Amino acid sequence: MRRVPTLVWEAAALLAAAALCAWVFAWLPARDAAAPAAPAATPAKAAGQAASFAPSLAGTHADGGATTGADGLLVANEDLVELFDYYLATVGEKTPAQVRAEIERELERRLRPPASNAARQLLGRYLGYKAALVELERRKDLAGAGAAAIRKRLQAMRTLRGRYFSAQESRAMFGREDAEQQDMLARVEVRQDRALSADQQRERLAELDAALPPEVREARAAPVRIARLEESVGQMRARGAGDEEVFRARAEALDPDAARRLAEVDREEAEWRRRIAAYLDARRSLRDARALAGLRERMFTAEEQRRLPAYEGSLQ
Contact, 63 vs 105, CB < 8 A? Predict the structure, then answer.
């Protein structure tokens, strides 16, 4: 499933504090797709495409996974959280009850008792934890974008987590997330430390970068590289470059598979722009609300219709 990166760390320096606030309390957070595999665990049956459940999942495969150890017992890890979140991201398209039922069906497909029973029980606790996070967000004593306020919220979140999960479960399911949050907090503290000069801040941030695992550094650098590449592609197209020249540039900077995926994104975006242009042209001649609703129904899915107001503003 194609996902938008949750944090573009250095590119979003001025928004770091606000980004963390939103990230910590998001009810349905998007998660990175590069969770490490659990050691000494046996993968269960791989999932097929989930297109039949919700339109937004069309053409995708479920993130994460559900695994058991050599003893046949459930392994509670970050993969399992990603599997939960993959389906929870469809709340809005589907009701919470429908989403929970689909997750439970997916767990039954992947696991056998007693692991499947344990996974359903863990899902219930995870949903309770997420609901409690929403309530936590409403606490005025935890508001603020300063480093001290962020630290207080993180501590409150982890204390809350202890009501739903054992210490071992928390480490296995949220360890990477906790490490990322601590790293982000350290960066916010550096940027908000007025006693540091600009050069000293850069040195401290470089030290934090150097302390990151290589795979994390690569994951954070990738979105920046792609953004720079696409800026270059825009300049190439402005000079008259065609699709083949763009493909070669992308393949050289990334790899052929990535270049093909980006080319597909280009085609999807071009098709979307074509459909929007046709819709706006047809809409100009309509004054009846029922006729307009019918036009939208004919041309767009329910999910796509939610995006239309951003384009219709030009007709007001």
Answer: no
Question: For the chain, which residues make up each domain, given as ranges?
Answer: 13-192, 242-315
| Res 1 pLDDT > 70 | no
Question: Which residue has 């796509």 as its token pair?
Answer: 304
Cβ atoms 248, 262 nearer than 8 A:
no
Four-residue CA torsion sign, 199, 216, 4, 229: positive
Q: Give the three-state DSSP class for 42.
A: strand
Above 60 in pLDDT, residue 32?
A: no
Helices 78-88 and 96-110, interaxial angle, to 10°? 140
> Do 102 and 130 contact (CB within 8 A), yes or no?
no
Q: Do the Cβ atoms of 83 and 67 come closer than 8 Å?
A: no
Starting at the earlier edge strand, list the strands of the sheet with 67-69. 41-43, 67-69, 74-75
Phi, psi of 69 (to 5 degrees): -85, -175
- Alpha carbons within 13 A on the beta-carbon side of 186: 15
**Amino acid letter, 71:** D
Q: What's the predicted TM-score (pTM) here?
A: 0.60
The mean per-residue pLDDT over the stretch 76-80 comes to: 94
